[in-house]
Automatic annotation (TrEMBL):
<dbReference type="InterPro" id="IPR048469">
    <property type="entry name" value="YchJ-like_M"/>
</dbReference>
<protein>
    <recommendedName>
        <fullName>YchJ-like middle NTF2-like domain-containing protein</fullName>
    </recommendedName>
</protein>
<feature type="domain" description="YchJ-like middle NTF2-like">
    <location>
        <begin position="1"/>
        <end position="90"/>
    </location>
</feature>
<dbReference type="Pfam" id="PF17775">
    <property type="entry name" value="YchJ_M-like"/>
</dbReference>
<dbReference type="InterPro" id="IPR032710">
    <property type="entry name" value="NTF2-like_dom_sf"/>
</dbReference>
Amino acid sequence: MRSRYTAYARGDFDYILATTDPQRRYDFDHDVARAWMRTSTFTGLKVQASSEEGNKGVVEFIASFRRNGGREETHRERSLFRKQGGRWFYRPERRKA
């Protein structure tokens, strides 16, 4: 989770994509992620909770950022992860049809 936050802060979209579960990459909105990176300055990450059970994990966090130099904003999320081949991958929720 922390490495993905750092990738957002650095604008490293390739890392974000590489750490997104290959089975769910089509559920991940690439354009929204790129725009958020391009227009935001990330100012902090607070992990509220995390749990792991077998190859599944959950991380609850609050990311702080400023969009286009404006006021401080926060993004709260409960992210799901899946471990495969010894690596953790972010699992976006399935897009609704």
